[in-house]
Every structure is written in structure tokens, then in C-alpha cells.
Amino acid sequence: MSLNPQEMSNTRRELQENFELTGLTKAQVASDLAISEIKLERLFSLTQRSLKDPWILRNYLIKKVEETGQQPVPFTALKGDYHQYWFLNGRQIERGKMSRGDQ
Predict the structure, then answer these.
(1) Helix (H) or strand (E) holding 44
(2) Is the Cβ–Cβ distance between 38 and 102 less than 8 Å?
(3) Burial of residue 97, with CB atoms counted within 10 A of its CB: 0-12 exposed, 13-18 middle, 19 or more buried
(4) Are the C-beta atoms of 33 and 43 separated by less than 8 Å?
(5) Which residues lie below 8 Å from residue 86, measured CB to CB, with a gap of 6+?
(6) Quick one: which of 33, 53, 52 has its CA closest to 42?
(7) Which of 11, 15, 68, 81 has the fewest CB atoms within 10 Å, measured from its CB?
(8) Can you tell me the distance from the alpha carbon of 13 to that of 96, in angstroms, rounded to the nearest whole number?
(9) Which residues, other chains included, contact 11 with Cβ-Cβ below 8 Å and sequence gap of 6+?
(10) According to the model, what pLDDT value does residue 99 have?
(11) Which residues of 79-96 are buried (b: 16+ CB within 10 A; e: fewer)?
(12) DSSP 57
């Protein structure tokens, strides 16, 4: 899935806003997702190579925001049922296991 520059900007903002709503630190998020903070930064900047990883972060953030009793900021590009996107492996996203390494 290729996002245009506006979609990239919106998605970065939406990820950041949802992260802020969680009340967690980036170290906590990285630990929960079993990734490095370097990789987490790549996810927030949308420079991560794996297409599934931003969806895993999205799902994680939505869950954590909802656990605080708040409403997550809606995503404008990372939306819909990821099982329906031919280029994504829905089962891997459901498991929430990020790709290996920092790339």
C-alpha cells in the first residue's frame, strides 16, 4: 500500500496523537511490542520496511487508548479490515508480532 504525501503526514500525526492518548512512554510501547526504540521511531515516521508493522502499532495504540476509557483518534489511511488487503498477512497482524530487526 503506497500512501501519498498527505496520507503519510496524516498517518504520522494520527499515530502520534493516539500514542499521546495512551499515557505510555515510548520505552513502554517498545517493550510491550518487543522491539527497539529505534524501530519504534521508524514506525512513527513510517520509514519501516514491513507493511504489517504499522498496522500492528495502530492496533496496539487503539487498544491502549480504549483501555484508558478514551476514544482513539480515527485513522484515515490505516483503516478498514486489514484482512481484505491482498498485500497484508492478516494472521501475522492479529498475532501482533513485529518483523525482525530494526528495518
Answers:
(1) helix 37-44
(2) yes
(3) middle
(4) no
(5) none
(6) 53
(7) 81
(8) 22
(9) 3, 46, 54, 75, 76, 77, 78
(10) 84
(11) eeebeeeeebeeebbeeb
(12) H
Q: Would you say how long the chain is, in residues?
A: 103
Which one-letter amino acid corresponds to residue 27? A
Q: Which residue has the cell 500514542?
A: 19
Tens place of pLDDT per residue across the chain (103 aa): 578 899 999 999 999 999 999 999 999 999 999 999 999 999 999 998 888 999 999 999 999 999 999 999 999 998 988 888 888 888 888 888 888 876 6
Give the predicted TM-score (pTM) of the model: 0.92
Amino acid at 31: S
